[in-house]
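Technical annex B. To support the medicinal chemistry partners, we prepared a structural model of the target in complex with beta-D-fucofuranose, based solely on the information shown next.
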Amino acid sequence: MKKIGKMGAALLLTLSMAMLGACGNSNDGNTAAKNGNSATQAPAADNGDKTEGKSITLGFSQVGAESGWRSANTKSIQDSAKEAGYTLKFSDAQQKQENQIKALRSFIQQKVDVISFSPVVESGWDTVLKEAKAAGIPVVLTDRAVDSKDTSLYVTFLGSDFVEEGRKAGQWLTEQYKDAAEDVNIVELQGTTGSAPANDRMSGFAEVIKDNPHLKIIASQTGDFTRAKGKEVMQAFLKANKDIDVLYAHNDDMALGAIQAIEAAGLKPGQDIKIISVDAVKDGMQAASEGKINFIVECNPLLGSQLMQVVKDIVDGKAVEPRIVTEETTFTSEQAKEALPSREY
Ligand code: GYE
């Protein structure tokens, strides 16, 4: 600050306030930055503030590397931390809660300034979060929520509205089959059991389709958000059920695995079996543009830039909104074809 003079300081303040405003308004789901971590969109305040930023140490515990979404999310966080000049202590939990708890404890021991993590499942965090609180280290949830009753255990939750994503999937399906005279047999590939996106995408979808009694979920099982499991479980679904009309996959990777199983069974994905998925990563969008996935609900992984801003605000003692929702859209096959060339992740 000292070096930049009065004009610079005023500009910096204006930019920080604009950024804070963006976060503050995002509770309505309309303003949070989409594609938020691209270098060009990073606030100038961060660039001008590197000397100060360098003293910030952020401990981040990632879920794993289970999907294309996760890889894009990891890259966004690493790139944005670098851009902001923070020291990032990054830990990959390989989809195991015990590894995340260990990582959080190690961040506490190392006395990082802020801890952030994407909780693999929703429950079982109170003890370690209390330890962080007792050590005076603020915690930011990104991407996935926890079910702790005591919301003072974390400062904010930055991420998507997964229930809404499930609803969007259900709304598309309801519209497609609004005139159905017969039962529509749906199979569901759930995300990681107990995770916020699996719980919420399941409930949002169920809430919407229940209005049409012909829309029937005949099988629902976890594919752990991976291609390999998606393929394996779809194979089992196909074996056990002769007449599957629709697949609802909680992410693109499981849908892509399932497509392999459907093709191996001599069926046409997108035609013989309609497919809905969530994420809209490049591979998913590619399959959609080829007509193999019929509808994708977007889930934006580029949370890095917003996270770094929130961390800075916390360190600076500024107020932070308790819930920051990312803005997202949906894609039909046609729309996927159009959007694919400029897709960032
Ligand atoms: O949809 C899936 C990933 O938590 C939103 O996790 C995230 C989900 C995403 O493995 O692909």
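Notes passed to the chemistry partners:
The CA atoms of residues 254 and 266 lie 19 Å apart.
The first strand starts at residue 57 and ends at 62.
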